[in-house]
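Aim 2 progress. For Gram-positive cocci surface proteins LPxTG domain-containing protein, the working sequence is reproduced below.
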Amino acid sequence: MPRLVIAICAGMVAAGLLAGFARVMEAAAPRGVPQAPVLALTETVEARPTDTPLPTDTPLPTETPPPTTPPTTPPPTTPPTTPPPTTPPETPPPTTPPTTPPPTTPPETPPPTTPPETPVQEQQQTATPTEMVVSTATPTLTPTPTAPVPATLPTTGAPAAGGAPLIVLLLALMAMVGGLLARRRTA
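Predicted structure tokens for this construct:
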């Protein structure tokens, strides 16, 4: 049995080497020279028996074959000339985007009118000197930027809960494959 395996392997290696050698020789052959057909090299000449034997005392006339002329080789073919590389068409210069007009400022709103002053009572005049003076102009309201509150996810068990079913599924699959392999080995 081992000899059969060795013989098969040796045959495969020999076939691979022969195929590789044939490819190398085919690639090395010049392309312009016509190759002789393979059948002409392997033909056998049949000897035809003669009907009457010729007397041995007379020399046989030998026919001289006509001289064979070697096949004329075609002139070497010149590779086709490649056209000069074409230059790509010129690209137009990049256009600048139109300038946008500066943003217009909203018209200023007139300050709100203050109500006419009411006569001050005497009680207010006798107030303590630490009393603050209230301005009558209304302050302009500017929107205060509010920072977005990052959403916090619960960190206790969130990654483990997402990957746990996948791990259990992989473990079950591995156990099934192991059981099938064990059955095949015992059978």
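The two ends are 24 Å apart (CA to CA). This observation will guide construct design in the next reporting period.
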